[in-house]
């Protein structure tokens, strides 16, 4: 799957724009940002790119008319070489550590050790939304295990919508999920998820290439937990399919949106019989919500 790269150049005396741009672009599907000497690089999957929406978002910013940007294709080779060379710094989330294959790390102090070799896919644990998803998953899976779900008489099934690197699927398996199914529209992400599952010696994960149209067709049955770290528009568009894969008492954990979007998301989900189950988590204006059916 090809990515689009947008190169932003901002006035030197208005550095605050570098911090504001991601907040405007996140709802448009942009999933990765990198600061430069002159401004910012932003990346979005080609099929999600909307030039008109980008122009409107830029002009909605304070001093947006002073921002110069250009659009081009991001090359796979450059991204892959950078990841293989630099990797990412280890991330600690409570009793969990997420690390790459590059940096030597002592994992003995942690209960959950997750290795991620990110090959062009979003989801190393560095982003606030991924971290909140992992925390909410831990709470929900612990609750289900305490209730007896996941023991020998019943499996604990988890559905990962937009699996990226497979980080949520892998973490869920290590937390006690016995069967994990994920999907992603990006072929690279599906391959990377399978690769990372092997790195972590996880056998109970299966990943599909496609979107929410897979739900109820190639991906069947119901799930105890559904997770989706995707942007607001896709969440609200696909919630009916998510709800269709849940039984009474299932949990839906979502993130990928800003705090100001939570009211609209909650109302949309309520129309599908989904009600809030835990207090919201918030980090730098990103939010994660948990619902139950």
Question: Can you walk me through this structure?
Answer:
With 293 residues, the chain is an alpha/beta fold. The chain has helices at residues 16-25, 51-59, 76-86, 128-146, 167-175, 187-199, 232-244, 262-270, and strands spanning 3-9, 32-35, 39-45, 68-74, 91-93, 96-99, 112-115, 157-161, 179-184, 205-209, 223-229, 246-258, 275-283, 286-292. It has a seven-stranded mixed β-sheet with strand order 10-9-8-11-12-14-13, sandwiched between helices. Helix 4 runs parallel beside helix 5 (167-175). The longest helix has 19 residues, at 128-146. The protein is globular, with a radius of gyration of 19 Å.
Shape annotation: globular
Helical/strand content category: alpha/beta
Distance from N terminus to C terminus (CA atoms, Å) equals 34 Å
Cα-based radius of gyration, to the nearest Å: 19 Å
Total beta strands? 14
Biggest beta sheet summary: 7 strands, mixed
What's the helical proportion of residues?
Answer: 25-40%
Strand order of the main beta sheet, please?
A: 10-9-8-11-12-14-13
In the predicted model, the low-confidence regions spanning at least 5 consecutive residues are none
Q: What is the typical, i.e. mean, pLDDT?
A: 88
- Fraction of residues in β-strands: 25-35%
Number of helices: 8
């Amino acid at each position: 799957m090809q990515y689009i790269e947008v190169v932003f150049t901002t006035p030197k005396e208005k550095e605050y724009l570098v911090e504001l741009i991601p907040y405007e672009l996140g709802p448009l599907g942009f999933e990765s940002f990198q600061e430069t000497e002159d401004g910012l690089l932003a990346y979005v999957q080609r099929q999600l790119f909307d030039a008109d929406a980008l122009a409107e978002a830029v002009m909605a910013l304070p001093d947006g008319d002073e921002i110069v940007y250009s659009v081009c294709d991001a090359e796979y080779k450059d991204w892959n070489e950078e990841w293989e060379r630099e990797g990412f710094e280890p991330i600690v989330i409570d009793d969990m550590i997420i690390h790459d294959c590059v940096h030597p790390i002592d994992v003995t102090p942690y209960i959950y050790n997750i290795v991620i070799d990110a090959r062009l896919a979003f989801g190393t644990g560095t982003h606030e939304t991924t971290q909140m998803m992992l925390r909410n998953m831990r709470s929900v899976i612990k609750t289900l295990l305490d209730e007896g779900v996941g023991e020998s008489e019943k499996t604990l099934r988890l559905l990962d919508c937009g699996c990226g690197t497979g980080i949520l699927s892998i973490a869920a398996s290590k937390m006690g999920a016995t069967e994990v199914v994920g999907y992603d529209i990006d072929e690279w992400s599906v391959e990377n998820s399978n690769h990372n599952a092997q790195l972590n010696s996880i056998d109970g994960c299966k990943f599909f290439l496609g979107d929410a149209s897979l739900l109820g067709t190639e991906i069947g049955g119901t799930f105890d937990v559904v997770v989706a770290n995707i942007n607001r528009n896709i969440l609200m568009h696909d919630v009916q399919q998510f709800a269709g894969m849940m039984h009474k008492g299932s949990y839906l954990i979502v993130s990928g949106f800003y705090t100001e979007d939570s009211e609209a998301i909650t109302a949309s989900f309520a129309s599908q019989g989904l009600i809030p189950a835990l207090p919201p988590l918030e980090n730098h204006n990103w939010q994660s919500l948990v619902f139950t059916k």
